[in-house]
């Protein structure tokens, strides 16, 4: 099974502590990836920025009011450090994995408010059964544009389309999408793809009543809808809890696990 997995920043870092990687979780995720690869999963791995990229980017914005070309070295550095934690864990599991930092192959267009990336090398690695690893990053702006942050969610969804992935797994630090944040029994196990706009309206009306603890969920759902509505071989999207190695492994192997599935 072809699967694109994003390890969220709130899963692999401690968002409350600047530049703090949760190596135990990263290592468990690497084991889950190895075990599912042994069961036949063909994987593209993406990770978020957590307390590395977001903290570094915020520092720049607080200092200069915006991201500038001079923000690229410190923000990309923070992401390379976090990426190194992930790469070391994968390579220690004897996985064949190679890192593709987006600041070296993506550009931001401010006139189109969109990114363009050259995925050729990454896709060659994937076809050679080497796990490509990429991540949310700062990327230069083209022509007169300032740099911008490309999120791992965008990369996951674009790549899922490129390789016709059967499943996209968003591994987070919560079990999925909840109707009521405080009510564990309100986990939504299934969302019909066509119902995402309605659900987003509900989120707007209730001011976030339908949400998970990461405020990025409405953004994630909007992106899922935007990127995948025009795709005929739409992958199943699973939002799961990556704190459990077994859940992650089973999700990567195509099983139905606890979480929210969007089909
Ligand atoms: O956590 C953000 O990636 P995300 C990356 O996937 C940076 O949104 C540099 C903040």
Your description of this structure?
By secondary structure, this protein is α/β, with parallel strands linked by helices. Helices cover 40% and strands 19% of the residues. The strands form 3 sheets. It has an 8-stranded mixed beta sheet with strand order 3-6-2-1-9-11-12-10, with helices on both faces. A two-stranded antiparallel ribbon has the order 4-5. It has a two-stranded antiparallel ribbon with strand order 7-8. The structure holds Isopentenyl phosphate. Isopentenyl phosphate binds next to helix 3, helix 4, strand 7 and helix 6.
Shape verdict: globular
Taking all Cα atoms into account, the compactness measure Rg is: 17 Å
Main sheet properties: 8 strands, mixed
Poorly predicted runs are: 207-215
What small-molecule ligands were found? Answer: Isopentenyl phosphate
Summed over residues and divided by their number, the pLDDT gives a mean of 93
What fraction of residues sit in β-strands?
15-25%
Number of strands: 12
Q: Report how far the terminal alpha carbons are from each other.
A: 16 Å
Number of helices: 9
**Order of neighbouring strands in the sheet with most strands:** 3-6-2-1-9-11-12-10
- Estimated structural class: alpha/beta
Q: Would you list the SSEs in sequence order as H and E?
A: EHHEHHEEEHEEEHEEHHEHE
Question: Helix content range of the residues, please?
Answer: 40-55%
């Amino acid at each position: 099974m072809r699967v694109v997995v994003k390890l969220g920043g709130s899963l692999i870092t401690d968002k409350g502590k600047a530049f703090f990687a949760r190596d135990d979780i990263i290592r468990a995720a690497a084991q889950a990836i190895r075990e599912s690869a042994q069961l036949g999963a063909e994987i593209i791995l993406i990770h978020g920025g957590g307390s590395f990229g977001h903290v570094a980017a915020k520092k720049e914005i607080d200092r200069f009011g915006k991201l500038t070309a001079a923000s690229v070295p410190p923000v990309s550095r923070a992401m390379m450090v976090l990426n190194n934690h992930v790469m070391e864990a994968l390579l220690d599991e004897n996985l064949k994995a190679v890192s593709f930092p987006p600041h070296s192959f993506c550009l931001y267009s401010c006139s189109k408010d969109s990114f363009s990336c050259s995925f050729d090398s990454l896709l060659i690695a994937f076809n050679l059964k080497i796990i490509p690893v990429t991540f949310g990053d700062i990327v230069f702006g083209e022509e007169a544009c300032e740099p911008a942050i490309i999120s791992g969610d965008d990369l996951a969804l674009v790549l899922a389309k490129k390789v016709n992935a059967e499943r996209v797994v968003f591994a987070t630090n919560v079990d999925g999408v909840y109707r009521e944040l405080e009510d564990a029994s309100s986990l939504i196990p299934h969302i019909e793809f066509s119902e995402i706009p309605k659900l987003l309206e509900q989120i707007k009306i209730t001011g976030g009543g339908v949400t998970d603890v990461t405020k990025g969920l409405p953004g994630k759902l909007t992106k899922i809808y935007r990127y995948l509505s025009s795709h005929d071989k739409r992958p199943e999207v699973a939002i799961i809890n990556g704190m459990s190695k077994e859940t992650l492994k089973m999700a990567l192997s195509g099983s139905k696990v606890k979480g929210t599935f969007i089909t």
